[in-house]
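Need residues for this backbone.
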């Protein structure tokens, strides 16, 4: 598959999970800290939070695109939310892997329509395409 980027960005991390991360343009500078659940202080952000935020916002955009393309929907209802829950754990092979659960809430939209839109968004979302076949992703509608 060949991709011609429409946009590129760059971020640099120093110090691993207990360091800092910053975007090249200076718009994002965050302190990182290992979560308490993994034995750290929890006094900063962690890669799983950043991944969850990115995935949720990207999936929300994909959902909006699919809704606009669907003549019977046109646009998402006000208050639509996508929540991404990202988990990290050991794999059977001895490394670490991620799990993702995406929960879509579309107030006032018929559940069948919301499920159809969510599953179609999962096919076009760049994050979904990036992890497909490597990360277990569950998509559900609230």
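Answer:
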């Amino acid at each position: 598959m060949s991709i011609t980027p429409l946009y590129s960005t760059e971020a640099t991390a120093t110090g691993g999970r207990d360091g800092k991360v910053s975007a090249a343009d200076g718009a994002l500078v965050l302190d990182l800290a290992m979560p308490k659940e993994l034995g750290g202080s929890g006094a900063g952000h962690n890669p799983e939070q950043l991944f969850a935020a990115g995935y949720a916002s990207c999936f929300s955009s994909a959902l909006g695109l699919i809704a606009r393309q669907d003549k019977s929907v046109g646009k998402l209802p006000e208050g639509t939310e996508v929540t991404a829950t990202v988990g990290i754990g050991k794999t059977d092979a001895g490394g670490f892997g991620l799990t993702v659960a995406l929960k879509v809430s579309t107030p006032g939209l018929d559940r069948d329509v919301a499920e159809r839109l969510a599953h179609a968004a999962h096919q076009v979302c760049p994050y979904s395409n990036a992890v497909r076949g490597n990360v277990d992703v569950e998509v559900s509608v609230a």
